[in-house]
Protein 1
Amino acid sequence: MRLISSWLVPLFIFFVLTAGYIRGVKVYDAFVDGAKEGITTVFKIMPYLIAMFVAIEVFRASGAMDMLARFTAPVLKPLGIPSEVLPLIIVRPLSGSASLGVLGNILSTAGPDSYIGRVASTMMGSTETTFYVLTVYLGAVGVKKSRHALPAAVMADITGFIVAAMAVRWVFGN
Amino acid sequence: MINAVWAVMLAVGIFVGLLNDQADAVTKAAIDGASQAVVISFGLIGAYGLWLGIMEIAQRARLIDALSCIMRPVLHILFPHVPKGHPAMGAISMNVIANVLGLGNAATPLGIKAMQHLQQLNHHKETISDDMAMLVVINAASLQLIPTTVIAVRSSAGSSDPAGIIGTTLITTFCAAVIGICVAKMLEKAIY
């Protein structure tokens, strides 16, 4: 499996390149045009990322995030979610790198093969950095009214957090 | 919605920071956050350039058209407003495949490309369309088959079974995606 995934990208690029060349595409020109678009896209989303990162960093550094964690703790108990994974639940939708740090921290204190460690790993693998996705996708096209996108995405996250604990209990039986 | 979330996060952050006597930390966090965003953006340029470059070759070689023909029966259920043969379907197909394979740094530029195509079909340019919201929800649900990053973190934390969470992750991802899609379909009529 590991072999397949590491060969995937080079083989895919090779395939596209060969197919393009055989079909008479000016592959170099095409690549440059696409890459140009990539650069403008990044500059288009940059202001939105700045806005989002400032809010997230302030929220975290001020201690507001810890406060939120304390408020939500009683809600999680009945769902079988251990309170040790709470920081991960709070950080996961906001920042990919910060949540990786939190996961590493949970795994080293609780142990990667403990109930807590497995729940945290499952949560991390089955959810995304929702606010980052939302910021980037909406920012790139300049959409201002997001309608139901945020509630639906957040519901998917909440489902992921709850089901993660259930799935670990069901599969590993602890 | 995003306006409110952003304003509340920032305002509550500043307020709590002042209560906790963390004024300096808050100031530093604001500036650090802004520079972090710029550093990350510059890191993205390479990956975006690479993947959209390859995508452009695939597009001109008509590979994307072939792919969207294959994927259309499934994706049409989720994105009913994309007309047959529209380039949006090709970009959505590529984005979904990159997600499933766990190619995070390819999935996002391809997803943005799909958003831009969907924006052409959108009648109200400042308001998200049903199909665009669906794409956001699917991307927020993390559809990958093998959570490679998590497995790596587990293995470096000394796990005896780093890949053991693949099963639970798949179950969880599937449930989250289904709920996200259902909620999006339910709310798309309700919220305008």
Protein 2
Amino acid sequence: MSEEFFIQGNEACARGAIKAGCRFFAGYPITPSTEIAEDLSRLLPKNGGSFIQMEDEISAIGAIIGASWSGLKAMTSTSGPGFSLMQENLGYAQITETPLVIVNVQRGGPSTGQPTMAAQGDLMQVRWGSHGDYEPIALSPSSVQEFFDFTIEAFNLSEKYRVPVVLLADEVIGHMREKIVIDDNIETIKRTAPTEKGEDFLPYKALENGVSKMPAFGDGYKLSITGLTHDERGYPATSNPQDHQKLVKRLCNKILENRDEIARVKLEQWEDADVILISYGSSVRSVIEATFKAREEGIKVGYMKIDTPWPMPEKEVLEVSKIANDLIVVEMNLGQMVHEVERIAKNNANTHLIGKIGGELPNPDEILSKIKELV
Amino acid sequence: MRTEIRIAGFGGQGVILSGVIIGKAASLFDRINAVQTQSYGPEARGGASRAEVVISDETINYPKVQNPDILVAMSHEALIKYLDGLKENGILIVDPDMIVIDEIKDFVIKNNIRVYYARATAIATEEVGLKIVANIVMIGAITKFTDIVSYDATKDAILVSVPPGTKSKNITAFEAGYALSDDLVNLN
């Protein structure tokens, strides 16, 4: 069975969260993400979950970290200003390997910037915003259907790898309405719980895939959860370089070694392309339109739609850099992903940027003129 | 074929809901592709408000309206702000009580714009007794003057979009808009 709706991206995200099994939301309303909190304040109580409006975004992420350790799938939603406030606790969720989902519906920044306008200026903040070494996972939807689907995927990845996952949306996708189909049959993943006896259990001992089992508070295990570097028991171990290397390298490697499984990318019309457009999130829509327009004029253009900006699909970017002469990264900032593409493509292809700020989607005709300059 | 519609007015007139209903009518009931987007300021009421709908029998990639085929203006400010973008031979639907038509006469004649009048605010007040349904009267007018959505689909979309206790008033408003004369306004 499936049902159809004509709804906003933000509404689709809230429904996706419920379908994924999210039963706790804490947040502070902020445009353009507020509809997610509004909808979950109605949906969660009806589905046996809890909704709390917190005093700010610092406490919001704190609350969902606690909820996650209580055994619930938990989420918060925000936009740039709130995401900035969450950075410290986001690092805490990384080092404590706490599964949770943070939705950032991006608006123009810096600071409070443009509340009602779209941007993609937080891409590098997801990568480097909290201090120290870590490998984030981020998903960027480019349609209302994808906002629903990726919310479920974000929960599944966070539970599977025991990591915070960022759903990096933007105002266009958050507020746009499109038809979506919600299927009854949705696969959900839940963290692995320990089965061994309390005294034998090591909460930070990794299984083969680098991920450790996760009990909840109240399951009968003695748990020490700390932001300090810790050993397999969870006890602070802050002075021995080996302890730190072992922990932080494992945290990074559980993402890097599973990159092919996590990274999602879609390539179209690339085999014969002279120019390949690369984008993520709502600006993908302009890129697809520009590709069609270019092909109609006989120009060999393809596109790469990156659904997971983090981890970057490096293999695929390298592959297309060996085919096309020019790669054009289209993004709604003054140049962030373009640096990643340049780093991966090296001298295989010329990398260019169409970086648009101000709040409007890149215009397909602007992209087409850039293509014509190059071919 | 891709058709772009822009509905504009000031915040509080129900402009965005009008766009949502048109989008829903096309997508869920007429079963063709539709994307609805909007633009609004940080204010809750007052300020400019704009809803846009793209309707197409093909996949809609670029979701925003660039040059609308149809412009619906519910305030003079909106009319002046968005008129320039209207396509040649495009359709303009205005509430004559809310605008000064003389100011746009040259543009209309030069670009061969087809103009329709829909006294949405007056009809909502006088015939329905509820000024806030002016947007639904306007939807009735849009359904009558253009072929972007069918009568049945729009009626169904209104019924699933408005609060339960207001269904009959909203349908009365829709019918009143649909009953308007579709004579073109002659500005010569």
